[in-house]
Specification:
Blueprint: H1 4-18, E1 27-32, H2 48-60, E2 68-71, H3 75-88, E3 93-94, H4 101-114, E4 119-124, H5 128-135, E5 151-156, E6 163-168
Parallel strand pairs: 1-4, 2-3, 2-4
Antiparallel strand pairs: 1-5, 5-6
């Protein structure tokens, strides 16, 4: 049985997606990658908890009509998006870090706006998700805490100004530390 928050979110997503009669997306769903493995190296995959959270994301978005998926090229974002991609039959588009973080953020925001889908999923990092949200016209938020993996930010682009709904998916995160989400 879905949690009440997930059910409410899905109802909102379906309502907003159904009203989109334009080529540009009306919803951008932003999440941080799921829990990363502790394996050595700069590009770890997901831990068992992260794999479960990635599956939970796919379940939470099952009725959201995701039409495009954007990730970074790092394995943890691609692995987080993989169950949703498999469920929707979509191929995620990885956007690189050429030019640094600010260029990546601008490129992801531009790619999200350019999608011919009413709902776009963006899987990013603790420091890029809030920046991408702001680049899309959403409010300025703090970076995610190192232990925060469950926030789901839903930005409606077809409103002026864009409206933000904050939700959560998967297992509960520990309480955030001061100064981060």
């Amino acid at each position: 049985m879905p949690r009440p928050c997930a059910s409410l979110l899905l109802a909102l997503l379906l309502t907003l997606a159904d009203t989109a009669a334009q080529a540009a997306p009306s919803l951008v769903l932003l999440v941080r990658h799921a829990e990363k493995a502790s394996e050595p190296g700069a590009d770890p995959g997901l831990s068992a908890a992260g794999q479960a959270r990635a599956q939970a994301l796919a379940s939470a978005l099952a009725e959201a009509r995701v039409g495009a998926i954007l990730t970074s090229p790092l394995r943890r974002t691609r692995d987080t998006a993989a169950p949703t991609a498999a469920a929707t039959g979509l191929k995620p588009q990885a956007i690189g870090f050429e030019g640094g973080t600010a260029a990546h953020v601008a490129a992801v925001a531009a790619a999200a706006r350019a999608q011919d889908a009413s709902t776009v999923l963006v899987v990013g990092h603790s420091n890029t998700v809030p920046a991408i949200l702001a680049a899309l016209g959403g409010p300025a938020l703090l970076d995610f805490c190192e232990s925060s993996y469950g926030p789901l930010l839903v930005l409606t682009l077809d409103e002026n100004p864009p409206r933000l709904l904050r939700a959560h998916y998967g297992a509960a995160d520990p309480a955030p530390a001061p100064g981060c989400l």
